[in-house]
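Let us work through a complete example step by step.
Step 1: write down the sequence.
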Amino acid sequence: MTDAPVAADAASPALPSTLAEFFASVERRAFRFAELGLRNRDDALDAVQDAMTKMLGYADRPASEWTPLFWTVLRSRIIDVQRRRTFRLTWLSDARMPEGDEIDWADSGPDPERTQEGREAWTQLTQALRQLPRRQREAFTLRVLEEFDVETTARIMGCSAGSVKTHLFRAREALQTQLEEYR
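Step 2: predict the structure and record it as tokens.
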């Protein structure tokens, strides 16, 4: 992997000039990623906030490094919360999200039928993603939903590009089976 800056083409978005702009550009996607991993809105908000706070210490880094660094920090924070929760909640109660505590991710559109179909599809995708092993869920979310390239995803996940491809293949295979009716 080279450290040489890549020339920005017309298709790629401009890099944010401040951390505030960067945070504004990733906050919603980061929350969705954290909520999928933690299955709890408050824990997800805390994880994103902690990751953003930690990023303040990296403000002197070039803007091109912020994206992979932020997602690595957020992923680590999610894993920390999951580990703590597993330790604390194993003897207290089931750590699953109670029924009816879903977040409405669907875009509000003029067509109620399409909005409902989108809401149902997103609910099905969210449930299917939650059933995947953690590494497969992370690979799918980062590569497909966040549209990171293989190398960036590998850096974020702390593994090789080949592992990312394997996890992504298995995740897609499992999701295809689970979501057959939405093809």
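Step 3: interpret the result. Confidence is low (pLDDT under 50) at residues 1-11, 91-97.
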